[in-house]
Amino acid sequence: MRATRDILVLTALMAAMSCVTATQAQSPPSDADGTVNPLVAKQQMIRDRIARLEDRMFRLREKLQEEEPENAARLDNALERSGELGINDDVARIIALLKMSNQLDQASDQQQSLMEDLNSMLKSLTRRSSDQDEREEEIKRLEEMKKRVEELLQQQEQLRNKTGNAGDKGSKSKRLGDAIRRLDAVIQQQQQLNQQGQGAQGQGAKGQSGEQSEVAEATRRLSEDVKKLSDEPAGAGTDKSSDGEGAPGGQPQDQQGSGQSGEGQQQGQQGGQQGGQEGGQQSGQQGGEQSGQQGGQQSGQQGGQQSGQQGGQSGQSGDQQINEAAKSLDQAHQQMSEAADELSEGNASPQEQKEALDKLRDAREKLAEAKKKLEKEEDPQILADAQRELAEKTKALSEQAQSGGQQGGQQGGQQGGQQGGQQGGQQGGQQGGQQGGQQGGQQGGQQGGQQGGQQGQQQQTPGQQQMDQAQQHMEKATEDLDDNNPRDATQDQDQALQQLQDALAELEEALKQLREEEQEEILRDLEDRFRIMLALQIEINDGTLEVAKTEKGKFGRAEKLQSAELASKQSDLAGKAAKCLHILEEEGTTVVFPTILEQLEEDMNVVSKRLGELKVYAVTQSLQDAIRQTLEDLVEAIEKKRQEMEQQQGSQQSASAPQEQPLLPTSAELKLLKAQQVRVYNRTGVIEAERTEPDANQEDLKEATQAVAKRQKEVADIAVEMRDLERGE
Q1: Which residue of 264, 335, 354, 693 has the smallest Cβ count within 10 Å?
Q2: Count of helices and strands (H, E) across the chain
Q3: What is the Cα–Cα distance from 29 to 20, expressed in whole angstroms?
Q4: Which candidate, 393, 322, 360, 19, places its Cα nearest to that of 220?
Q5: For residues 419 and 38, which has the higher predicted lDDT (pLDDT)?
Q6: How does DSSP assign 456-503, residue by residue?
Q7: CA dihedral 115, 116, 117, 122 (to 10 degrees)
C-alpha cells in the first residue's frame, strides 16, 4: 500500500531519535565556543524530517481519498494524532534544552516522551486493515466450504457406484452367486475324493491323482475369477479408499469396521460386556463374591474375544471378504496340488485333502457373507435413505454458504453508506456550504447505502448456486430409488456430481484470487520495506568508508562516536530484517527467501558488533557490500514478480495456474541462491587477501573464516532442500 513508505519513514525517524538519545551523554553541548553541537544539529534534522513527513502524509491523504479511502482515513488519524500530541512543539523544546549545557537530563526526558508520541503515530498508521482481516476470514470460510464440498463429492461418487451396480442385471452380487454355485460343485467333488482316498494305496491312489489335479485346476480358475470381482470399481471400489467406506450415508471406513473398529469393535464390546455380566452373575451365584468376580472377568474376556472376532468378521467390507475368500481358494489349490503329487506316487494324502476341503468351506462362508453385504448395499431403499441423507447435508451446506454471503452483504452495505456519505458531504460542502454539505451527506449516504446493500444482496458464496442444483438432483434421485428405479436415479446422480464438481471449481477459483490479492499486498509491503532498508544501508556503508579513512589505531573521539552511531543504525536495520522474516514465515510458501532474510539479519548483527569494536576495514566492508547486494537482489526479485502478476491479471494464463503459487517462483529463488553463493565466494577471497596483510588480526580472520564456512553449509543445505522439493521428496 502507498502508506507503507510513510510508516517506514516514521520508523526511521524513531531510530534516529534513539541514536540522538543514546549518544547524548557522550557529546556535551559546545555552543559556548562557537562550534555546532552535533546533538542539536541532529535534532534539527529530525524536526525537518517530521515536517516533511507530515506534509507528505497530508498530500498523500488527498490523493488516496477516492481510490483507497481506508488508507486515507489512517493517514488522517495519524495527522490528527500528531496535532493532539503537539509533536512539533516537543521537538522545538528539545532543541532549546540541548543548547543549554545544564539541561541535558531534561532534554533526555523530553526525547523519551517524543519517542512515545511518535510510536503512538506509528500505531495509528500500522493498525491492521479491516480489509486484510475480512480477507483472511473469507479465506478460512471458503477453505472450510471447499473441504465440505469435497466430502460431499466423494460420498456422492460412492453412492453413484452402488446405485449403478444395483441397476445392473449382471451386478456383482449376482456374479458372486454364480461363483458360490461353482464353489459348491468343487466342494462336492473334493468331498468325494476325500472319501475315496481313505486307505487308498498303490494303483488306487495313482488313479485318483488325475481327478485331484482336475479339481485343483477348477479351484485355481475360480480363485482368479473371484479376484476379478474384488477389483471391480462399481459399488466396491470405495472399499479400497483410505478416506471412506462405500456404505449407506458414506460413512468413513474407520467408522464401519475392519476387524478392529466400527461394527466389529462395537459388537466385541457388547459381547464382552454381556459375557462379563452373565459370567459374573452365574459364577457369583455358584461361588460367592470372589468366585463371581473371577467368573465375570473370565467370561467377559471370552465373550469379548468371541464377539470381537465375530464382529470383526462381519465388520469387513464385501471386497475384503472376497479377497479373503480368494486367499483361501489359493491355499486350497496348493493343498490339492500337493495331494495330487502324493497320489501320483501311490501314496495316500488324507491330511492335505482334508485341509484343502476346510479351505474351500472357509472360502464359501466368506463369499456368502460378501454376497449378503452386497445385496444389502444394492437394496434401492437403503440407497434411497443414503441419498436422502446426502441431499440434507448438501442443503445444510448451501444454507451455511448463504448465511456467510449475507454477512458480507451487510458489511458491504455499511461501507457503501459510509463512503457515499463522506463523498456526498464533501461535494455538497464545496458546492453550497453547510446546508449543501448536509444535503450532500444525506443523499450520498442514502445512495451509497442502497448501492452497498444491493451489492450485498447480490453477493453470493462461490458454488452456492451449484450446491442448490446438486441438492435438487439428489432429491430426484431419491424419488427414483424410492420407486425402485435405480437406473433413472443414476442420471440425476451424475448431474449432482457435475454440479458438485462445478461448485468445487468455483470455490478453488475464488480462493486463488483471494490468495493472489494477499500475496500482492505482502509483496508490495516487502518491496517498500526493502527499498527503505537499502537506502539506510547505503548510508551506513558510506559512513563506514568515511571512518575507515583513519589509520588503524589512530581513531579519535569523533571517529569512535561515528562508528558507535553506525553500529546502532545497523542494529536497528537488523530488527527491520527480523520483521520482514516474520512476515515471510507466516506466509510460508517459499524456501530460499526466508533463509536469505535470516542470513541478512545475522550479517547485520555481525556488522553492528564489528562497528562497535571499531573494525571498519576490509572484512566489515565486504559484509556491508554483501548486505547491500542482497537487498538489491530482493527488491529486484519482488519487483519482477509483481510485474508478472500484473501482466497475468485478466489473462487466460492465470486461470490455468496452480491453485496456490509460492510468493516467489522457483526460478527467482534459484537466482537468489546463486547470488548468495557468489557473495560467499567473494567474502572468502577478501578474508584470504586480508590474511596476508602484515598487521592482520589472525584471531579475527579465524572467526570470519568460521562464519563464511557456516554460510557455505547453509547455502548447500538450501540447494539440497530445493532439489528434494522438486523431486517431491
Answers
A1: 693
A2: 20, 0
A3: 13
A4: 360
A5: 38
A6: HHH---TTHHHHHHHHHHHHHHHHHHHTT-HHHHHHHHHHHHHHHHHH
A7: 90
Are 120 and 81 contacting, i.e. CB atoms less than 8 angstroms apart? Answer: yes
Residues in contact with 711: Cβ distance below 8 Å, sequence separation at least 6, in sequence order: 599, 680, 683
Alpha helices in 198-261 (DSSP H): 203-231, 253-256
Hey, what's the cell of 254?
474407520
Per DSSP, 86 falls in state T
- Residue 397, CA distances (Å) to 242, 403, 474, 475 in order: 24, 10, 14, 15
Q: Quick one: DSSP state of residue 129? A: P
Instruction: Give 253's contacts (C-beta < 8 A, 6+ positions apart).
Output: 239, 241, 242, 243, 244, 245, 262, 317
Rounded Cα distance between 132 and 125, Å, is 14
Cell of residue 674, nine digits: 546463486
Distance CA(686)–CA(552), nearest Å, equals 18
Statement: residue 258 has pLDDT above 70: no
Distance of CA 303 to the CA centre of its chain: 46
Distance CA 107, CA 110 (A): 5
CA distance 503 to 464: 7
**What Cα–Cα distance (Å) separates residue 683 from each residue in 237, 349, 550, 596, 625?**
61, 83, 23, 16, 10
* Integer Cα distance of 295 and 301 in angstroms: 10
The three three-digit cell numbers of residue 128, written as one number: 491492521
Q: Which amino acid is at 476?
A: K
pLDDT of residue 251: 36
In a 3-state reduction of DSSP, which class is residue 653? coil
C-alpha cell at 117: 508520541
What span, in angstroms and rounded, lies between the C-alpha atoms of 513 and 519?
10
In contact, 348 and 201? CB cutoff 8 Å = yes
Q: How far apart are CA 109 and CA 9, in angstroms?
A: 23
**Of the candidates 389, 377, 399, the residue with the CA atom closest to the CA atom of residue 478:** 389
Average pLDDT over residues 341-353: 82
Burial class (CB in 10 A: 0-12, 13-18, 19+), 586: exposed
Q: What are the grid coordinates assigned to 457, written together?
A: 444482496
Are 644 and 667 in contact by the 8 Å Cβ rule? The answer is no
Total count of residues recorded for the chain = 729
CA distance 307 to 273: 10
Q: What is the pLDDT of residues 361-412, one digit of tens each?
A: 999 999 999 888 877 777 888 899 999 999 999 999 999 988 876 555 555 4
314 backbone φψ class: left, alpha, beta (φ>0; ψ -120 to 50): alpha
Q: Which 3-state string (H, E, C) describes 9-59?
A: HHHHHHHHHHHHHHHHHHCCCCHHHCCCCHHHHHHHHHHHHHHHHHHHHHH
Distance CA 716, CA 668 (A): 17
CB-CB contact of 46 with 570 (8 Å): no
614 neighbors 557 (Cβ within 8 angstroms): no
Residues 105-127, mean pLDDT to the nearest whole number: 76
- 536 CA to centre of own chain: 35
